[in-house]
Specification:
By secondary structure, the protein is α/β, with parallel strands linked by helices. The protein has 2 helices and 8 strands, in the order βαββββαβββ. The chain has 2 domains: 1-65, 2,3-Dihydroxybiphenyl 1,2-Dioxygenase, domain 1, CATH 3.10.180.10; 76-152, 2,3-Dihydroxybiphenyl 1,2-Dioxygenase, domain 1.
Length: 152
């Protein structure tokens, strides 16, 4: 095992290619409550930086077409943690009102009997997302094929 060049790493922001910036910006603002920190609408250079205050969490780049596909190397899914199972269910209800496509029907634990779990759904470009909590999911039914966050 090699020694890392620095002692700690912290995730900065997540950058996603999207096919329709306005649609994706609206989606992520509705679901996560993000503010637009900065954006550009220059032709051939459209992007938006989303987050809270000046903290950028997500960058959206309008430079793709079609839908996300899981059969190519790259992103598997994005996961966002919330404080409680009530928070997960609150977002679930909001997503159902938005007619968002779910990968499982409602809350699922990460594995049979696990306390952690959440909801799995797609953004407008088919990018797979998870909103989870570390406790409170043990009473929900887990998928029978393995860890819920790895095999959808």
């Amino acid at each position: 095992m090699s020694t890392p060049a620095v002692s700690t790493f912290k995730t900065g922001h997540i950058g996603l290619n999207v096919s329709d910036l306005d649609r994706s910006k609206q989606f992520y603002q509705q679901v996560f409550g993000f503010d637009v920190v900065m954006e550009s609408e220059e032709p051939e250079r459209q992007f938006a930086f989303l987050g809270h205050d000046s903290n950028i969490v997500l960058t959206l780049w309008q430079q793709s077409s079609g839908r996300f596909t899981k059969n190519q190397p790259g992103l598997h899914h994005l996961s966002f943690q919330v404080s409680s199972i009530d928070d997960v269910q609150h977002v679930e209800h909001r997503l159902r009102d938005m007619n968002v496509h779910f990968l499982y029907d409602g809350v699922v634990p990460h594995a049979e009997g696990a306390s952690s779990g959440g909801i799995y759904f797609e953004d407008p470009d088919g990018i797979r997302l998870e909103i989870f909590t570390t406790t409170g999911a043990e009473d929900f039914n887990a998928p029978s094929h393995g860890p819920s966050c790895g095999l959808f």
